[in-house]
Specification:
single chain, alpha/beta, 10-stranded mixed β-sheet, two-stranded antiparallel ribbon, 14 strands
Length: 361
């Protein structure tokens, strides 16, 4: 393990659409200290409400922002240049910092902002060759410059101690038609050819992938995911993790990633009245470790669907103010945090186990 994640991380999760990227960020950054950017706020609200029991408010139309704030562009806005302008305003506002009103910024599906930017740049930057054919090189250069300015603005906010994350569509590796050389895939901002350059700005650049072997039996098998960030496998995708907690198939939980790098669990946001989730998370992580090392039956209990019912009875007294329907979501979230944290710890242990942990390899 190398340096710790303490503040100011700039990260990106890329994947094909509908692969759980937004869910991972909604889980680690719930509540009023998170500022979202999105063209479509409904997808964030749906994921946050259905999975975690809270709903961020939309800036300019809602009045309740206890679940976070979503900023959406007005008609005619919504490109990378607009995002850059907004982020620069935030950095100067005095409301963003590790101990300020807003402590996390999430840009959901930056690829949609990038597509609008690219269309604009190609239209404005179109020129013609001597033979009359269209030339878009200046447009692509302008789009590349816009993305660089955006990421520089992000670094200005991370310097204040703010966590900044993007979700992005996935660009697959492509072969250059002229040179026949392969170009890396990765996160899609504007120009697909930018993926490798873009990744160099991030502290964490990871892919969200399907991972049916992950032992969370409280989620449907086909929806189990992993964070793929293998720094030794960068031929096709520019994975990077300057903090050192991610690996080939990392448990799908960013809270556990932060904690494994030394972040105090209490410094990561929870919803009002839900700080008890930390206690449940740490208790389950200890049980996961003990079960894998010494007690196969305990491991089985930690990874079966009956776990939530048992934990619900124990921790229901900690959240009397919420409905049972919402409470089970809070318990499920803490369970997933604890399972991921326990598995992270097991991967760092160098002793024999009493259960099969081949899924970690």
């Amino acid at each position: 393990m190398t340096s710790k994640i303490t503040s100011g991380t700039l990260g990106v999760l890329f994947a094909d659409p509908k692969n759980g990227k937004t869910s991972l960020l909604a889980g680690v950054f719930p509540g009023e200290t998170t500022y979202w950017f999105a063209k479509d706020p409904s997808s964030i609200q749906l994921v946050a409400s259905a999975e975690y029991g809270y709903t961020p408010g939309v800036y300019g139309s809602d009045k309740d922002f206890s679940g976070g704030t979503i900023r959406t562009p007005k008609p005619g806005e919504g490109d990378i240049t607009w995002l850059t302008s907004m982020l620069r305003q935030l950095a100067r506002s005095g409301k963003f910092g590790h101990d300020k009103q807003y402590r996390q910024v999430v840009v959901d599906d930056v690829s949609h902002f990038g597509l609008t930017e690219l269309d604009k740049c190609l239209t404005v930057g179109k020129t013609y060759n001597k033979d009359g054919s269209e030339n878009y090189s200046k447009g692509y250069q302008a789009a590349n410059t816009s993305v660089v300015k955006l990421l520089e603005a992000c670094h200005a906010i991370t310097a204040l101690g703010v966590q900044v994350w993007f979700t992005s569509h996935k660009v697959k590796p492509q072969q250059d038609k002229k040179t026949e050389e392969w170009r890396q895939g990765g996160p899609k901002f504007c120009n697909p050819a930018q993926a490798q350059m873009v990744a160099g700005f991030f502290g964490i650049c990871a892919e969200v992938v399907s991972y049916e072997e992950y032992p969370d039996h409280n989620s449907v098998r086909s929806f189990r995911r992993a964070i793929k960030c293998d720094a030794t496998e960068t031929e096709l995708y520019p994975y990077c993790d300057r903090a050192g907690a991610c690996y080939e198939l990392t448990p799908p939980n960013l809270r556990a990633v932060y904690i494994m790098n030394g972040t105090d669990p209490k410094s990561l946001p929870r919803l009002p009245g839900c700080r008890w989730q930390d206690k449940l998370m740490l208790k389950l992580a200890d049980k996961v470790q003990k079960g894998a090392k010494q007690d196969a039956e305990l491991w089985k209990w930690c990874t079966t669907a009956s776990t939530l019912k048992s934990l619900g009875k124990e921790f229901s007294t900690h959240a009397k103010s919420v409905s049972s329907k919402i409470l089970i979501r809070h318990i499920r979230q803490a369970y997933q945090d604890g399972l991921a944290l326990g598995i992270h710890r097991l991967r760092n242990d160098k002793i024999s186990m009493v259960v099969d942990l081949s899924f970690l390899s």
